[in-house]
Design a protein that fits this description.
CATH superfamily of chain A: STAS domain
Oligomer: heterodimer
CATH architecture of chain A: 2-Layer Sandwich
Number of domains of chain A: 1
Distance between the termini of chain A: 48 Å
CATH topology of chain A: Transcription Regulator spoIIAA
Helix content of chain A: 40-55%
Order of helices and strands of chain A: EEEHEEHEHEH
Strand order of the largest sheet of chain A: 1-2-4-6-7
Number of helices of chain B: 28
Structural class of chain B: alpha/beta
Shape of chain B: globular
Strand content of chain B: 15-25%
Distance between the termini of chain B: 82 Å
Largest sheet of chain B: 6 strands, antiparallel
CATH superfamily of the largest domain in chain B: P-loop containing nucleotide triphosphate hydrolases
Largest sheet of chain A: 5 strands, mixed
Radius of gyration of chain A: 14 Å
CATH architecture of the largest domain in chain B: 3-Layer(aba) Sandwich
Largest interface: A-B, 29 and 24 residues
């Protein structure tokens, strides 16, 4: 596995949803990069986040801890968040650490975007 | 003059170890060789030795080097031993040694240096060119010997080296063990007399002895300090002491482990004397030293009846020859050391010991010279001396004063020593870890550094998530700089306020006296108060405010008019805390900023990777950090594939290994910053052991403290072990003396339960 500490975080926007791509190993450094990018996107007005794990082979507990922090930040901003293309082993890890209770898991980026757009267009009921 | 000699022709004469085995004193040996150079002719060197720092072999090695050089410098080595009972007999022995070693050098026959020869026999061996002046020397000696003037005889003998005729070489006298000189009987105080005669003798010399005694003797002898150099001989540093343990253990054929080696270094505080006699005892008792238990068993044996026991018993007998007084002295020394207030008056000591003032002065002087007490003339401070001395006193007190059963005292001492061993190592590891901040501040010397290194939030905003190359190039492009002051004095806050010890580790809170621009004026003087706050997360407002208040209060109490507070924490400070820090103009940095600051000031040292393997076992050592846990995880993957583990299980093993490595890196003050991995392949399982040296974390099993919000966040970062237990079939901490060792087993097939 190539450690991707030195790589930049890839991201793009679809409407008001930002898609951020996690690297092959999610640890403290790469986690912080994702966190930084997510905060940046939220500050720029994004209303939803998709974190795509299609390249991610391994996640450590510090990485998971940072993901929880991102979920907290998104919730505070009133933004929704989905994880896409998470491999089975990582899903198991997320389940063990209670992450799946707070986030929508989607098969792939397209499904994640569809899920989020559904929420985006739903009327806000007070 | 070079201290290096071609080893193939090098002859060992007085040295007890071969040149290559003499470790730890290279710079001191070099300094002695410099003293022998023509430029230093007529000058003296005082070797001021810390008790038990060892000096004899250093001088013997210097003798051998000078002898082998064959220059015009004639080495003379003389050790005053307890066998000489008076100053006169010691001086006569010196004369004999001088003539003998002079002839050995002139004949180039090392064997003459060691042979038991009388002056008459030496005359027969004298080279023809020297016979006349040596005969005259012996005749003069014989005349004085049978006179009544002891002082004249002593001075004649000690001054013999200056009688060498010109053109026959220059004597370089090395006198060893003068700590015994003062205890000799008779009217002449030998220590003072030696320095008086040598100081006026026109030959170069080295006088080595206990630092307090030698300095006092030099003042008493009214030495011309313009012609005297001094060299302080202290205990070895950790690396040199470790090397010494390895060399001596090899020489004495004692099996040792790295863990035992490091414990001995710390327990004996790098003392060559104790290290040597301890390993000698191990050889005599055919003891191997692999674990803490091995070391402490032998240590306790030594305290109760070995070399260490004899050393301290002899010293106590010298200090207080009368048995009844010695008994009282042991009691007083122990009670004073163990009591809350270790300082008491001279009068209290006099009453407790039932002595006259002059008798007590004599005893206190000897205790002071050995550095067992600090005696100012008015007050006596007990509790000083090496750990072995304190342990020896304790057992003597319990056996002789309290009359406790010997078996009980032995068992207690062994248990106490064993309990102390991990603490001794933990203290050492913490010192290494803390040395970073202390070392960094001590090296402040008007360097220009990016100001962002002292502002965590700005740094985070600019560089969070950036890789190290990007951070470095970003810092290089910074336009705002801060010029560090020059540090002139650095001490722990605890040195100013002892109650700080209850708040944080000694080196976590420091006070540095500095000058801006390296300009020494009131206007440029700034006192830095730096605190390293231990936290795994960003420090919150409450804790930040408490530290700001504490340090400001400290500065006010100490009367610092200009001061700068600098707070450091592993993960920096929260946004709320930052606002406070900005308002109060407090510098703040996280660990990464600290590392970058250190890198700006000096180069960092690279680490190394070692990998070995055996038939069914793979061993690997990787440095901590740099995502190196992935190397371990990938290795495990390859091995697990050979065993045909399912992909899911392989991923579980990899995750567990990654977590174990992170734990090892995050939770220990590892001295070598390495993670040791063992992969053992069995028919139905893979056993992975991840070890690291350092401190066993107290909260490894889930214990926690602090506020609720902090606890929740800390828990997130404490998931590692929970995760490992879920992912692997068996997880067990192995008992090791030093650090942690986590053994994890994954079975090829799921284990059947006991009911099946």
């Amino acid at each position: 596995m190539d450690t991707s500490s030195s790589k930049l975080v890839r991201s793009h926007c679809v409407g008001t949803t930002a898609v951020v791509y996690a690297s092959d190993y999610l640890n403290k450094l790469t986690g912080e990069k994702i966190e930084h990018e997510c905060r940046r996107q939220l500050n720029c007005g994004c209303r939803a986040l998709v974190i795509d794990f299609s390249d991610t082979k391994l996640v450590n507990s510090i990485g998971v801890s940072i993901l929880l922090g991102i979920i907290d930040v998104a919730e505070k901003c009133g933004a929704r968040i989905a994880f896409s293309e998470v491999n089975n082993e990582t899903v198991q890890l997320f389940e063990m650490l209670g992450l799946t209770r707070h986030v929508v898991l989607a098969k792939d980026e397209r499904e994640a975007l569809m899920n989020l757009s559904h929420y985006e267009t739903a009327p806000i009921v007070h | 003059m070079s201290s290096r000699s071609p080893s193939e022709n090098f002859r060992r004469i007085l040295g007890r170890v071969v040149q290559q085995d003499f470790v730890g004193r290279a710079s001191e040996l070099e300094r002695i060789m410099v003293q022998a150079e023509p430029a230093n002719a007529g000058r003296g060197l005082l070797l001021l030795m810390e008790p038990s720092a060892g000096v004899s072999e250093l001088l013997r090695q210097a003798y051998d080097q000078l002898f082998n050089l064959r220059s015009d410098v004639i080495p003379i080595y003389f050790a005053i031993t307890p066998h000489e009972t008076t100053a006169v007999s010691a001086a006569i022995e010196f004369l004999n040694t001088f003539v003998q070693q002079y002839i050995a050098f002139r004949r180039n026959e090392p064997v003459v240096s060691n042979a038991p020869l009388t002056l008459q026999e030496l005359l027969e061996l004298a080279p023809p060119a020297d016979l006349e002046w040596i005969e005259q020397l012996v005749e003069s000696y014989n005349r004085l010997r049978f006179g009544n003037d002891d002082k004249a005889l002593v001075r004649f003998c000690l001054g013999a080296p200056q009688r060498i005729p010109s053109g026959r070489g220059r004597a370089f006298v090395m006198l060893d063990g003068s700590q015994l000189a003062e205890y000799l009987n008779g009217a002449v105080v030998l220590g003072t007399e030696i320095l008086r005669v040598f100081g006026r003798g026109r030959f170069s010399f080295v006088v080595a002895g206990l630092r307090r005694q030698i300095l006092e003797a030099a003042h008493d002898a009214k030495c011309d300090f313009e012609l005297l150099d001094t060299l302080r001989l202290e205990q070895l540093d950790t690396a040199e002491a470790a090397k010494l343990v390895e060399h001596v253990a090899r020489r004495q054929q004692v099996a040792t482990s790295e863990i035992a080696r490091d414990l001995l270094v710390q327990q004996f505080a790098g003392s060559p004397f104790f290290i040597n006699i301890f390993l000698q005892a191990a050889r005599e008792k055919h003891a191997s030293l692999s674990s803490y238990v091995d070391c402490e068993r032998l240590y306790v044996d030594e305290l109760f009846g070995g070399h260490i026991h004899r050393h301290f018993a002899d010293l106590l007998e010298e200090i207080s020859p009368r048995l009844d007084t010695r008994h009282l002295l042991i009691r007083l020394l122990w009670e004073a050391a163990a009591g809350e207030d270790q300082v008491s008056s001279f009068e209290v000591w006099r009453k407790r010991l039932h002595m006259t003032a002059s008798e007590l002065e004599d005893v206190l002087h000897r205790l002071h010279v050995q550095e067992f007490v600090n005696w100012s003339g008015v007050t006596v401070e007990a509790g000083a001396g090496p750990q072995a001395w304190k342990d020896y006193l304790k057992i003597r007190y319990r056996l002789d004063v309290l009359n406790e059963p010997r078996a009980l005292v032995v068992a207690d001492m062994l248990a106490d020593s064993l309990k102390r061993a991990p603490h001794t190592m933990a203290r050492h590891y913490k010192q290494i870890a803390d040395a970073g901040l202390r070392d960094l501040i001590s090296r402040f010397n008007t360097h220009r550094v990016p100001a962002v290194l002292f502002d965590y939030q700005s740094f985070t905003y600019k560089y969070k998530g950036a890789d190290s190359d990007a951070v470095i190039s970003g810092l290089a492009a910074e336009t705002e700089f801060f010029k560090l002051p020059q540090t002139i004095h650095l001490a722990s806050c605890a040195a100013f306020f002892s109650d700080m010890r209850q708040i944080c580790e000694e080196d976590h809170c420091l006070i540095a006296h500095t000058f801006e621009e390296g300009s020494y004026s009131d206007a440029q003087q700034v006192i830095w108060l730096a605190a390293d706050i231990k936290s795994k997360l960003e420090v919150d407002l409450e804790v930040t405010r408490a530290w700001c208040d504490r340090l400001e209060n400290m500065a006010q109490r100490l009367g610092f008019t200009r001061f700068q507070i600098w707070l450091i924490s592993n993960e920096g400070f929260s946004e709320e805390a930052d606002k406070l820090l900005q308002r109060r103009r407090v510098f703040n940095s996280n660990r990464q900023q600290l590392g970058l600051l250190a890198a700006r000031i000096s180069e960092t040292v690279a680490t190394e990777v070692v990998q070995t393997s055996e038939r069914n076992e793979f061993l690997m050592v990787v440095p901590m950090g740099e995502d190196n846990e992935l190397i371990a995880a990938n290795t495990a993957e390859q091995i697990a594939k050979r065993l045909s583990f399912r992909p899911e299980a392989i991923n579980q093993i990899k995750t567990a290994i990654v977590e174990a490595c992170i734990n090892a890196s995050e939770h220990s003050f590892s001295p070598d910053r390495k993670i040791y991995q063992r992969f053992r392949v069995e028919s139905d399982r893979l056993v992975v052991t991840i070890s690291s040296r350092g401190i066993v974390p107290a909260n490894l099993n889930g214990a926690n403290s602090g506020s609720e919000t902090k606890q929740a966040a800390e828990e997130r970062r404490g998931w590692g072990l929970k995760l490992i237990r879920t992912l692997m079939d068996e997880v067990e901490f192995e008992r090791v003396d030093d650090g942690t060792s986590l053994r994890m087993t994954k079975y090829l097939r799921p284990q059947k339960s006991a009911n099946e």
